[in-house]
Write a structure and sequence with these properties.
Pfam family, one: ATP-grasp_3
Structural class: alpha+beta
Oligomer: single chain
Keywords: ATP-binding, Ligase, Nucleotide-binding
Strand order of the largest sheet: 16-15-12-13-14-17-21-19
Radius of gyration: 31 Å
Strand content: 15-25%
Largest sheet: 8 strands, antiparallel
GO molecular function: ATP binding; ligase activity; metal ion binding
Number of strands: 22
Protein name: Inherit from NOG: acetyl-CoA carboxylase biotin carboxylase
Shape: globular
Number of domains: 5
Length: 560
C-alpha cells in the first residue's frame, strides 16, 4: 500500500494523475520497490488478504495547501548580551527564564577574570553561543548574524551586560537595526562628556578638567580650584580609582598614578583622568528603566558612604528612599532630564546624584543596570510589591505591554523595611574561617549575601567596592529588629570578627565575639531566625555551621 499525494503520479503503477483534486489516494502495489522512489510520502504494507478491503479506497481530506517540502521550524527569538557580568548576568538569566535564547558577546580586551563574575542569583545561566568582538563593527555584526542563522536563531534584541559593554552594545544594536540608544551621542558614558551635555541642557553640572596626560590645562585647574577636589578615571565603575585629594600635590600624584599604574576593575588601563570640583552634600542613586524615552523610576537609594581606612568614600550600604520624600521629588525629575540630555531612550540606567546647596548635580550616569551583583533584587520586589530593575529591563526590551503597565515610580510607602549592607574589612591577611558570616545568616532580618571571602582568601582593609568584604540584604517588617541586626553587623566589623585570619588566636577571637554578642542580650528574644529556628533553638543548624567554621569562635553565638 502507498499513500500518494497528488499531483505527483507514480509512473510504475500506471495510475492516473489527480492533479486537480485535493484528496489523499491510497494505492496498493505488488511492486513496492519502484513506486516508493517516486512518492513524496509512502506507507508500505504487504499486498495480503487483510488489506484487500482497502484496495482502491479513496479517503476525502479537508482541503489544505499542498507542499512537497516539510515546513521549516521557526527561528528562535534570541537576545545578544554584550559583556555580561554582575547584574548583567541576572538580566540574562531573566531573559532565559522567559524562553529566549542567549548570545554572549565579549568586548575586545575585557578581563578574563571578570568573565567569570557570575552572581549566585544567576545560577543556571546558560549561553547558547559565546562570541568575541571582531576587528570592525561590521565584522562583529556579520559574525552575530551568521552564527545566529546557523543555529536557528533570530536576533530580536542587543543589550549591554555591564559598564564595559555599553559602547559596543549601542553600536551593535544600531547596526543591526534593533532597539538602540545609538551612537548619535558619541561616548555618552564618558564622565566629562556627560557633564558637558547636561550643562548644555541647562542642568547643574560639575566644574572639571580631563587629560590623557598632565597638561597645562590640568595643572591650571588644579592650582585654581578650591580644595578638596575629586580625581578619578574617566571610564570606571563604582568607586574604582576615585580619590578625594586635599592638596595640589596629592591631586597631581593621584592623577599620574591613575594614568601610569592603576588597573581598572573592569579590565584594561586608565587612558584618561578626570579632575572635578568636590560636591558637598548627600549622594543618592536613581535607578530607571526606559523605553522610547519614557523613563520609569524603579528605585531611589541613599548611599551610606563614610571615611575609613584612609579612604574618603567607602560604601557602607544602600538605603531605599521613599518616592514621596522631598529628596525623591527633586531627584526623579532631574535624573529624567539627564537621561534625555544624554540620549538614553532605552534600557536600564543607574544615576548617581548629589543634592548640594544649589540643588541636584550629576556625579555620573551609568547607562546600565545597578551593579552589586543584583543582590538587591529580592529587597526591591518586597518594597515595591513585585518588581525590580531586572524585571523592568526585560519588560522594556521584550514586552512593551507589560512595561507600559509598570508604575511611574515605586509605591509609597514601601511595603517592607530593609537595605543593602556593604561589609567593611579592617584586617590584612589570609582568611582561616568566617564565623561572623555564619552568625549574620542566622539573624532574623537576613535575606541573602554575596561575598568572595572564603577560607584561603586574601583580605585587605576596605577602601573601595573592589576591596569590600561582601554585601548582604537585610529586611524585616519590624524596624527595631532591623536596626538591631544592622548594629550587630557593624559591631562585628569594628571588632574585626567577621572572619578569622590564619595567624590569629582562636580562643582570643572567640572571646571578642562573645563580648560583641553580649551587648545584644537585651534583644535575645528577637535576634536569630524566626523563633522556631532561632540561634538558641536551632541545634541542628547550629551544629552544621560549627562544622564549617572555627568551633570555639562560633560557639560564642550561643550567648546571643
Amino acid at each position: 500500500m502507498h499513500l500518494c499525494l497528488p499531483p505527483r503520479p507514480c509512473p510504475s503503477s500506471g495510475q492516473t494523475s489527480f492533479a486537480n483534486t485535493r484528496h489523499l489516494f491510497i494505492f496498493f502495489f505488488e511492486d513496492q520497490s519502484n513506486c516508493s522512489e517516486h512518492l513524496d510520502f509512502a506507507l508500505l504494507l504487504p499486498f495480503t488478504s487483510p488489506n484487500l478491503a482497502l484496495h482502491h479506497k479513496v479517503a476525502t481530506m479537508v482541503p489544505t495547501p499542498f507542499s512537497e517540502t516539510p515546513e521549516e521550524e521557526p527561528l528562535a527569538p534570541t537576545v545578544v548580551v554584550v559583556t555580561p557580568y554582575s547584574t548583567g548576568c541576572c538580566i540574562a538569566k531573566e531573559i532565559q527564564n522567559r524562553g529566549y535564547r542567549l548570545i554572549c558577546m565579549w568586548s575586545a580586551g575585557f578581563s578574563e577574570v571578570m568573565k567569570t563574575h557570575v552572581p549566585k542569583s544567576a545560577d543556571g545561566l546558560m549561553w547558547d553561543l559565546v562570541l568575541d568582538e571582531q576587528d570592525t563593527l561590521e565584522d562583529t555584526a556579520n559574525l552575530v548574524l551568521r552564527e545566529a542563522a546557523s543555529h536557528g536563531m533570530d536576533v530580536v534584541s542587543c543589550i549591554c551586560g555591564g559598564e564595559a559593554g555599553v559602547d559596543l552594545a549601542d553600536a551593535l544594536s544600531e547596526h543591526l537595526g534593533l532597539l538602540s540608544n545609538g551612537t548619535a551621542v558619541a561616548n555618552r558614558r564618558d564622565k566629562k562628556v556627560q557633564q558637558e551635555l547636561i550643562k548644555e541642557a541647562g542642568l547643574r553640572s560639575i566644574r572639571q578638567v580631563a587629560g590623557t596626560s598632565f597638561t597645562p590645562e590640568v595643572d591650571d585647574f588644579m592650582r585654581k580650584e578650591s580644595y578638596p577636589v575629586v580625581v578619578k578615571p574617566l571610564d570606571s565603575a563604582g568607586s574604582d580609582g576615585v580619590k578625594m585629594c586635599k592638596s595640589y600635590e596629592e591631586a597631581k600624584h593621584h592623577f599620574l598614578y591613575l594614568l601610569n599604574e592603576h588597573d581598572m576593575v573592569n579590565g584594561g588601563e586608565c587612558h584618561e583622568v578626570l579632575c572635578q570640583e568636590f560636591l558637598k552634600g548627600t549622594e543618592y542613586v536613581v535607578d530607571c528603566v526606559s523605553r522610547d524615552s519614557v523613563h520609569k523610576t524603579v528605585m531611589v537609594w541613599k548611599y551610606d558612604k563614610r571615611p575609613v581606612n584612609g579612604a574618603a568614600f567607602v560604601y557602607f550600604g544602600d538605603i531605599p528612599v521613599d518616592s514621596e520624600t522631598e529628596e525623591a521629588k527633586v531627584l526623579i525629575p532631574y535624573a529624567r532630564r539627564v537621561l534625555d540630555a544624554l540620549g538614553c531612550a532605552h534600557g536600564p540606567s543607574h544615576g548617581e546624584i548629589i543634592i548640594t546647596e544649589d540643588g541636584p548635580c550629576l556625579v555620573e550616569m551609568n547607562c546600565r543596570a545597578h551593579g552589586g551583583d543584583g543582590i538587591w533584587q529580592p529587597l526591591c520586589r518586597a518594597l515595591t510589591g513585585g518588581y525590580n530593575q531586572v524585571d523592568a529591563t526585560v519588560d522594556a526590551i521584550l514586552d512593551r505591554e507589560t512595561f507600559d503597565r509598570l508604575p511611574d515610580k515605586p509605591v509609597s510607602p514601601f511595603l517592607s523595611n530593609g537595605q543593602c549592607v556593604d561589609l567593611v574589612s579592617y584586617k590584612t591577611g589570609t582568611v582561616k574561617a568566617t564565623p561572623g558570616y555564619s552568625i549574620m545568616r542566622l539573624l532574623p532580618s537576613f535575606v541573602c549575601m554575596e561575598s568572595h571571602i572564603r577560607p584561603g582568601s586574601k583580605v585587605v582593609p576596605t577602601v573601595d567596592l573592589a576591596s569590600d568584604a561582601g554585601t548582604l540584604v537585610v529586611m524585616n517588617a519590624n524596624k527595631d529588629v532591623l536596626a538591631r541586626d544592622i548594629a550587630l553587623i557593624r559591631q562585628m566589623e569594628t571588632a574585626s570578627v567577621l572572619f578569622q585570619l590564619e595567624d590569629e588566636d582562636e580562643q582570643k577571637e572567640a572571646m571578642v565575639i562573645q563580648k560583641v554578642l553580649e551587648k545584644q542580650k537585651s534583644a535575645a528574644s528577637t535576634l536569630g531566625r524566626p523563633r522556631s529556628k532561632s540561634i538558641e533553638t536551632s541545634t541542628t543548624r547550629h551544629r552544621r555551621l560549627v562544622s564549617h567554621d572555627t568551633p570555639a569562635m562560633f560557639m560564642a553565638a550561643k550567648h546571643i
